[in-house]
Amino acid sequence: MTHDIQFRSDVTVELVRSSASDADVLFAARVSTQGEQTLESAQDATLDTSRSKGLINYLMRDRHGSPFEHNSMTFYVQAPIFVFREFMRHRIASYNEESGRYRELGAVFYVPGPDRNLVQVGKAGAYDFLPGTPEQSELVSAEVRSVCEHAFESYQRMLDAGVAREVARIVLPLTIYSSMYVTMNARSLMNFLSLRTKREGTHFPSFPQREIEMVAEKMETAWRELMPLTSAAFDANGRVAP
Fold it and tell me: Which residues form the active site (predicted)?
């Protein structure tokens, strides 16, 4: 069977399910001082923005983290496999990824876009990445495309010969796209964002690989719409997870 090989330079992130709001934080936090609460009372309290903002900022600043755990977000992510290997080092979420043992993988591969920095300078833990020359960009694109095309042809020949999917897949490079569902709460997401985004003014600077940062940025955009007071407090306190 012949497949048209596709190359992408982007990632897909979709928020597919959520139960997450600033009211969830207030609801969980106030039981410490007021006893049993209702979510409706917490939602009403959120309307008092100055009071709610002050409490959430206090919790974030003093790292009272557990109130930020009483919520849930499920994201659907499409990205190259090397991004998933980095992502799953964060043992603070639930993951389910498509399996190359049980389904034939699609002929979709990542190739860095023209704006992707290519030159690494500095020392471990403090690298800077600079734009490549046109010649370097052309080389990267040509080599990635060539390897992926040849690898997928090998994969397809083995499948056509009746070789099991779990064996045939071993020739495929890490640049092939996979997909997964990942579920986490806001505290876990803030931990992920603190490590996988690079921002000025953070208490603990991070130097993420650009491709996982692309995923993190899209997740953060969706989260900010759900929990604007919490995300603002996260920024105001140096982007340190409570």
Answer: 196
